[in-house]
Design a protein that fits this description.
The protein has helices spanning about 5-30, 40-55, 65-85. The protein is an all-alpha fold. Helix 1 crosses helix 2.
């Protein structure tokens, strides 16, 4: 496998992991779970760098934070650009 193929695979796996982590974090936010739980701590550590940057740009809609949906879309676009660009 060439370097381009490895890069595409890496980007696809990274995007998938981030998307699953963001979805998991969003779902867990609906339940009364201890924020110090190891699972919550790991998901926050993985997703907060992305979500924090987007929260500065994306406004809340009332009480709803649409940042996770925007993050998943942005990650999808990055994945598509990487697959087509290499």
């Amino acid at each position: 496998m060439d370097l381009g193929g490895l890069l595409i695979n890496f980007v696809q796996i990274l995007v998938l992991i981030l998307q699953v982590a963001i979805i998991g974090r969003a779902i867990l936010s609906w339940f009364p779970i201890d924020p110090r739980s190891p699972l919550v701590t790991v998901l926050n550590a993985i997703t907060e760098p992305i979500l924090a940057r987007l929260r500065r740009i994306v406004p809340r809609i009332g009480m709803i934070d649409i940042t996770p949906m925007v993050a998943i879309f942005v990650l999808y676009v990055i994945q598509q650009v990487a697959v087509r660009g290499v």
